Amino acid sequence: MSMDNAPRETPERRAYYDRLEPQDLSALWTKFSTLVTKQPKSRATAHLWRYAAVRDLLMEAGELITAKEAERRVLILENPGLPGDGRVTSSLYAGLQLVLPGEIAPAHRHTQTALRFVMEGEGAHTAVDGEKTVMKPGDFVITPNWAWHDHGNDSDRPMIWMDGLDIPLVNFLDASFAEGYGADEYPRARPAGDNLARFGQGMLPIGWEAGDTRNSPVFSYPYERSRETLETLRGTGEWDACHGIKMRYVNPANGDWAMPTMGACLQLLPRGFETAAYRSTDATVFTATEGRGRSTIGETVLEWGPRDIFVAPSWAPVRHEADEDAVLFSFSDRPVQEKLGLWREDRGNA
Ligand code: GTQ
């Protein structure tokens, strides 16, 4: 038998296979090459969601249901190759969440980890274990698993952010627990911005005992700072052929990714830059915060502008071209794959 082809089926073998099924058995040699593939064969496809189109539908949802009744008023970005599954990649979930002025999405917690990437609006907040963080476009905010969180909007404009969660991964492991707090807001524990002051300034409180460092003690990474970082590094001219200038959001307690199950990055592609083809085993969700360009993912060419969201499946070659200075936010399950010794990349000759 070869890795690629199942052994020939004979009438005797067929009759035998038919007798296995009622006994809840099957013969490995008939499905070896689909169970143990020579390389990743994702059902997920490359796809792009136009922000304007999703936004229109999300605003319609704003008239259909309150954030409170919905618990979370979100339109899920479903990968066309995984229809109906609530998945943007095989392991991850993404959605766009709307909180209207005056609304509260009530406090709850779950074993799924969440990230937020702010698309639109300013002045609304998310609270993690009773500490508010006020959000602006481009801010990256994390909600560690099992942390209480509620969202509120005291501003006078709609607030929309992208949610990324490890829902499919946690459900695959049958490890989902969730509970409501029983009140709209979890009691205020610390002043807004406390986490950033304590842990996000290149300093740590003296005598601080890290304890469980799987999640970053910083849960808000303001765009202003990340964007400035990219701009400062632009001056070095040290462009990576596959990534331009690309930074990952870090857990300052241990240098690891900010969350154990999802890794997030921000990258700058200057006007006219074309990246070399790159592939890796972590299927990745991208959104542009600034600029326009196109990404060729396998055979699919996706034209993107600000706030459009697109996804690249595992192991599909990705090339980005920037028509204007462009900034891409991205997230994937890379931290999980790295921990398990599964993560691979292929930089071609770059
Ligand atoms: O904000 O807690 O998009 O629990 C999906 C599930 C957001 C949230 C989602 C959630 C949340």
TrEMBL record:
<protein>
    <recommendedName>
        <fullName>Gentisate 1,2-dioxygenase</fullName>
        <ecNumber>1.13.11.4</ecNumber>
    </recommendedName>
</protein>
<dbReference type="InterPro" id="IPR047183">
    <property type="entry name" value="GDO-like"/>
</dbReference>
<keyword id="KW-0223">Dioxygenase</keyword>
<feature type="domain" description="Cupin type-2">
    <location>
        <begin position="96"/>
        <end position="163"/>
    </location>
</feature>
<dbReference type="Pfam" id="PF07883">
    <property type="entry name" value="Cupin_2"/>
</dbReference>
<dbReference type="InterPro" id="IPR013096">
    <property type="entry name" value="Cupin_2"/>
</dbReference>
<dbReference type="InterPro" id="IPR014710">
    <property type="entry name" value="RmlC-like_jellyroll"/>
</dbReference>
<keyword id="KW-0560">Oxidoreductase</keyword>
<dbReference type="GO" id="GO:0047922">
    <property type="term" value="F:gentisate 1,2-dioxygenase activity"/>
</dbReference>
<dbReference type="InterPro" id="IPR011051">
    <property type="entry name" value="RmlC_Cupin_sf"/>
</dbReference>
<dbReference type="InterPro" id="IPR011960">
    <property type="entry name" value="Gentisate_dOase"/>
</dbReference>
